[in-house]
Amino acid sequence: MKHFAIITVAIICAVLGVAESKTFTQCELAKLLHRTYNFDKAKVNNFVCLAQAESSLNTVKTHKNSNGSTDYGLFQINNKYWCSSAGYSSSNECKLSCADLLTNDISKAVSCANKIYARHGYSAWYGWKAKCKSGVKDLSSCM
Prior knowledge:
By secondary structure, this protein is mainly alpha-helical. The chain is built from 5 helices and 3 strands, in the order αααβββαα.
């Protein structure tokens, strides 16, 4: 009976298109950012710390803010400025749907986060300011 329940839930999730959640380890994300997205070591350390502080390294994390906006995905990218979501007016600076940030393929999240970083630096993220500004873990052994 237990197996039937698990299979039923899996089928329902597949039919409804529920996003799979990926929670990275710090080393997994560090290696991916360095090898796939060519981040230098200092940027890797900061972005992993940022993602840990913002989403606990979870790709499908969302957070509703007091102003009515929502933060999406691994880097908690906000729908007021950076992505488009139903029912919320946005400048959509990254030219993507916020749903694109809630997937295990983090390429769009990385691209948008890089745009935010280029414009505002790490201080665009409250989590980075609170937990990473004073120092980040060296993850060079993961790369």
